[in-house]
Amino acid sequence: MERKALLCVFFLLLPLALVSADIPVLNSIEDLRNIEFGHRFPRHGLMLLHFVSGGIYVDNNDALIPTFLPERGDWGFHHFNNYEEVFPPLQDQNRQGYYAVGNINTPTAYPLDPYVTRSYYLTRGNLERNMDRLVVRTSPNSPLLEAVYITQHYRGSSEYDPNNTYQISPNLLREIRTVMHNRVDSVHAFLYAASYDVDSRSFTRNCFATDSTYKVEDAGRMTLNESTAIMKGAVVNDHHTECYAVVLQVKSTESGYARLRWANVPDSLLDEGVMLALFNNAKNPLSSLYLDKRSYGTYDTNQYLNHGLQVKLLSKDGSVVFMSGPQYDDADRKVPVGIEGYDASLQLYTKDGYACARLFIKKTFTDWKTYFKYSWVGFYSNHNDASDSYYTYKYAIYFTKQDDANEKYDIYSYESSLSIQPGAQAQFFLTKNYNQILAETKPWER
């Protein structure tokens, strides 16, 4: 009787075990062509895979070497509990983990490149715009990744779909990186090679707001020219509108204020009258500008540069949102840079238009204040300035600890008196002199 009971339990658990252990492996871009994942507008999965692949180097032994740290939260990676057992059990629960990225409906996703998030902001209310995820498994003994997976939610659900879950082989990652290095238009070339469905009819309904008086007649009629792999646009009022070509950005002025940048606004909308507006999380705009006949340009506002700012293209009375740009990332979409020789890293960011810095200290680096007793961070208005020409500085041990739920890192920050501006940089010095620079951030973008 006991034997029969054990067999019964075994067979009940068998399907679950097979689902979590026997995940299909995709070995080439050609393998991507025959799966559902991310192939229709406004799905973003293929763009997400392309983006993350650019941050994973594959060596001759198929080792996966990331230029980002998922456990640090780079690009919005967060701990994935695997409660549904979609993926194989971890060998070491304390020293390795699963980390997921791709949920655009969260401020931690702002660092993702706009080409990953664009379809999300074009399709308010669409149940397919935020389904796709990429998951990595970290190694217990090294900074390498053990595996990379793609998966998706069921439509309209937060549950994961094991039947649309795949492992990405080192060879496929290598192939995507080859496309990235050999093609200027690598995103479009990759989408074409992976058979992205450019005739997705949902684009027709969602290129603009569904209650708009500007009817999208054939916005799904996007095509790819095989030789150039350039994505073409939609038709609005019999005028070609390259929806994916419209640029709506928030950038920095020389004094830490938000600069609006726009380009490729279609004539059909300019003729009717449109305006740009800058928003935070509130409903009312912080600043606005009527475009008249200007299809491109910049506009400097009097609003301090902050996390989450977003520029939107509106009807002239402000009642209709045609499209939205990406929400602004306070770190300029740059991952932290490692402090050479230590389990710590440095990140430049902005708050209220000022240059600020974060120190990420790994929790296992418990005596960091002893090693960094005389370490300091210098703030520079221009990355070409000499090391002793800093605008201001702060000793690392006097940075303020932040309330953060990161399981692997403690985060410390300092808000300087330097206005954030293009070319600004933060540098980490080990001692009081200027000859031991252990980290320097990438210059702030224009």
From TrEMBL:
Record's keyword annotation contains Signal: yes
Superkingdom field: Eukaryota
Keywords: Signal
Signal peptide: 1-21
The name this protein goes by in its record: Uncharacterized protein
